[in-house]
Backbone:
C-alpha cells in the first residue's frame, strides 16, 4: 500500500484524463499537484469561502472582515462601535476591486490609529479579488457613543 501511494505521489497524469479535454493530452500534471488542488477545493468548500464577483459581494466581505477588528481598549469590533464611516468598493478596469474605507477612532488622541489602519488594510487585502485598499483614518464627524449599535451598547452594559 505504501509503495503504491509513493508511486502514485510521484506519477504524472495527462490532464485530459481528469476531465480537462480542451488541454492537449501531452500536458501533464503531477499527482502531488492534483492532490494539493483537491485539498484546496475541499478547504474552500468546507469554509464556504466564496470568491466575490460583484462590488456588493465584496462590500459584504469587507464588512465581515472589519467585524474581526477590535478597538484594543474596548472589547467590541470597530463596526459595532460605529467607527466605520465608509466602505466603498469599485471594480477595476483590469479586473478585481478597489476598496476605500474611512473610519475614525473613539478619541482623536488615540495612538492605536495606525495599528487599526494596518489591521483593516491587511484583512481587506486578504479578500479574494481585492487588488487595492485605501484605508483612511478620519476625525470628521467626531465619534460619539450614539454611533454605537445596540449590540455594542448591550455588550458594554450601556442598555
Residues:
Amino acid at each position: 500500500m505504501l509503495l503504491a501511494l509513493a508511486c502514485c505521489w510521484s506519477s504524472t497524469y495527462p490532464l485530459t484524463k481528469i476531465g480537462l479535454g480542451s488541454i492537449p493530452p501531452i500536458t501533464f500534471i503531477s499527482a502531488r499537484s492534483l492532490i494539493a488542488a483537491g485539498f484546496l477545493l475541499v478547504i474552500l468548500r468546507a469554509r464556504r469561502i466564496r470568491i466575490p464577483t460583484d462590488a456588493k459581494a465584496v462590500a459584504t466581505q469587507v464588512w465581515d472582515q472589519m467585524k474581526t477588528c477590535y478597538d484594543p481598549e474596548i472589547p467590541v469590533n470597530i463596526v459595532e462601535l460605529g467607527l466605520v464611516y465608509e466602505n466603498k468598493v469599485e471594480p477595476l478596469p483590469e479586473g478585481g476591486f478597489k476598496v476605500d474605507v474611512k473610519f475614525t477612532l473613539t478619541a482623536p488622541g488615540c495612538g492605536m490609529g495606525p495599528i487599526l489602519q494596518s489591521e483593516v488594510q491587511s484583512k481587506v487585502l486578504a479578500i479574494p479579488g481585492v487588488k487595492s485598499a485605501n484605508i483612511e483614518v478620519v476625525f470628521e464627524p467626531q465619534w460619539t457613543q450614539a454611533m454605537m449599535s445596540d449590540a455594542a451598547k448591550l455588550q458594554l452594559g450601556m442598555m
Observations:
- The first helix runs from residue 2 to 10.
- Confidence is low (pLDDT under 50) at residues 1-27.
